[in-house]
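Dear colleague,

Thank you for sharing your sequence with our group. We've completed the structure prediction you requested, and as agreed, I am returning the results in plain text so they can be pasted directly into your records. Please verify that the sequence below matches your submission; if there's any discrepancy, let me know and we will rerun it promptly.
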Amino acid sequence: MTLTIVGLGPGAVDDLSRRAWRTLKQAERIFLRTEKHGCVSCLPQMEQTYTSFDDLYESLDSFELVYERIVERVMDAARRGDVVYAVPGDPLVGESTVLKLMDAANKADIAVEIVNGISFVEPSLKLIGVDALDGLQVVDALAVAALHHPPINPDYPALLGQVYSKQVASDVKLTLMNQYRDEFPVTLIHAAGTDKAAVEAVPLYEIDRSEHISHTTSLYIPSIGDMSSFEQFQEIIAHLRAPEGCPWDRKQTHLSLREYLIEETYEVLEALDNEDAQALCEELGDLLIQVALHTQIAIDDGEFRMTDVLSHVNEKLVRRHPHVWGDVQVDGAEQVLTNWDALKEQENANKGKQRESILDGIPKGSPALLQAYKLQAKAAKPGFDWDDAADVLAKVREEIDEILAAEDDEQRAKEVGDLLFAVVNWARWLDVEPETALRETNQRFYRRFRYIEEAVAANGKALTDYSLAELDALWNEAKAQGL
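Please find the predicted structure tokens below.
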């Protein structure tokens, strides 16, 4: 028993291969996935031997159900003798039933033969004048429509098949807009390989407005260029670390890069504090350089690869969001954090990393204010906390009194530390993150002091020529101006 799967090509009977024609002419039992194909009316022995599955498309609610039923019917027939199953295009390009049939036939010990046909790809490339070997990515539009970010390398072109309705086009458009700008020029390709073939050059945001969209529509997306992909980024970093690369990059180690990682992180924070989107874009790129450099060093040293980094973080994000990728219900952000901590604890236990204290897990190298804030928050979870903010304020005043009562510099330094710790606790009770609050205060101080310096310089004087009262007056001017 043999199941022969035939590709009927894009539409015109002239594009049907001689082998396909011969197979159809000699077959005793032939199934068509659909009769809605240009060459079907010209096929040999049409009336006597062909059975289509168009009735399933009309009676069932989803394509998945249709495909399952097609597989069932074809396999029932194949178990009784040789069968031919004919599909549009090529059997192995965008034909969901084919792989399912091949798997089922293999399990049933039924031989499978594939008779290739011209897919939608070749005539589409002819219409738009593109070489497939120039990095063309062929993607199922239905898969893209179900995602939130396109699985496409933007440095290379892509051809999306099965954009068969305005709804699919709309869903595809929204996904693509997570990577491509709204006005990005794309091309809709209709009925490729038939005498009704047509192309439409449109901006991305208009693809679902076309009146010509049908079951034969595809979408061509050209390369963005401008070295815009993560793959290109990794190539550049790998080149820098290669023997013919940069001497500075080649000599770096995980430890030598530590200061740059911290520096770039703070530059990202500065861009965020300034609400400067352009600076943020640039600084995030610089921070990514550090991530990629560390990863390339690990590759060179045989430790791990970027695929390991991405696989680990992707799995962790999915695992720790069971309310998104599972059936867990949450009431709000607070419960998400609670679940996150519980899942993290379980993961550590599974790895044999049982923490000795609930305070463990805070990076020792984090800024002191932030570290104090997180220590207090962790201690508060089991109830080690003040009853209300008034008690915390009383503690702040107590620490001030202890500083004033200190008898030597060592004791005074200790009490100042206690005061800062108490102030951080008070900030926590006021829902203020102290590290950010102090950083913003530092920036305000800088802006206002610069105002004083510029005002003094405009008068041709030095800061030392002004009294404290005069300088304070200038400070208040800066403050009044919102600096």
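Summary note from our side: The chain has a mean pLDDT of 92.

Kind regards,
the structure core
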